[in-house]
Specification:
The protein is mostly helical. Helix 4 runs parallel beside helix 13.
């Protein structure tokens, strides 16, 4: 297992380097610049600003300087938020985004796996049809539709939760954003769990376990569910990527002070260091989620570990 984990971990470094390189080049080659304004700056003022931030240097030199700073944990200074470094801005917003992401992932796992098991066990009953219909609706509705609907029902009409904002402790403020972010993922996990569990329940080993007189609950929990969850665990990597990217929309809808606003504002203002910092953080979080999913997959399925050369 250790060699399998080390192989997976070693593969993350080249991937991160490619992401940083491609993102850096695309940002610098995109039309516009950080000092483009409605009122044009004087040429000498613009030249001084570009010289101060190193933007007058060749692209290759800028890239090497950025990577060197990044290797030491320096994300640079924001071009628009001059009083803050990019690292300071990330430290301000990342706890909110991380709390939202973890809460949404836990909600999605509980709802998705729970409803998926119920839909498989109740196959052919009306309740299974209701679960399937609800999953289809949750998958079809985007977050910018689901969020306002939840606010209208649970915040404005029932007054159970705040309509937006953030406070400490974040319990009541976290409920609606986390549910909004979790619903599409929970729907996908429901369909995946149901399909995988139905396939496992048809295996000869499950029929043999039932023939030995084991109770239905024991057959389900001990013999059917562990192998049925392997595809679900494999899906956690893409699910984590969905959580990371989906939080941008949810944070905007609910006015949360997370990192999403920095990426949006940085992209609009062409704030290169800020956008690159957000991309690096999101890439690291996504790769870490995929790495954890790979480890869990390896624990559940030994064939995955032994299929690759040591």
């Amino acid at each position: 297992m250790m060699s399998y984990a080390l192989r997976r971990l070693a593969g993350l470094i080249p991937t991160l380097i490619v992401i940083v390189t491609v993102s850096f080049v695309i940002l610098r080659l995109a039309p516009g610049g950080p000092f483009d304004q409605e009122r044009r700056l004087a040429p000498e003022v613009r030249a001084n600003l570009e010289r101060a931030y190193g933007l007058d240097r060749p692209l290759g030199e800028q890239y090497l300087q950025y990577v060197s700073g990044l290797a030491h944990g320096d994300f640079g200074v924001s071009l628009r938020e001059a009083d803050f470094t990019v690292g300071e801005l990330i430290r301000q917003g990342l706890p909110v985004s991380a709390t939202l992401g973890v809460a949404a992932l836990l909600i999605a796992l509980v709802l998705g796996v729970g409803f998926g098991i119920a839909a498989a066990v109740w196959q052919g009953r009306p309740a299974a049809g209701v679960i399937a219909g609800g999953s289809a609706v949750a998958l079809a509705l985007p977050a910018f539709v689901t969020g306002p609907v939840l606010v209208l029902g649970f915040a404005l009409h029932l007054n159970w939760f705040p309509a937006g904002g953030w406070a400490s402790p974040p319990g009541r403020y976290l409920a609606l954003p986390a549910l909004t972010l979790a619903l599409p993922l929970a729907a996908a996990l429901t369909r995946l769990t149901r399909a995988s569990l139905l396939e496992v329940l048809r295996l000869p080993s499950i029929r043999a376990a039932r023939a030995r007189g084991l109770s239905g609950a024991r057959v389900l929990m001990r013999h059917a569910l562990p192998p049925a969850l392997i595809p679900v665990v494999s899906y956690l990597g893409p699910a984590f990527a969905f959580i990371v990217t989906g939080s941008l929309v949810v944070e905007t809808v609910f006015g949360l002070p997370g990192t999403g606003r920095y990426l949006v504002h940085g992209a609009i203002d062409r704030d290169y260091p800020l956008v690159m910092g957000m991309i690096v953080i999101y890439a690291v979080l996504t790769l870490a989620g995929n790495f954890i999913a790979d480890l869990l997959h390896g624990l559940l399925d030994p064939l995955v570990r032994t299929a690759e050369p040591a």
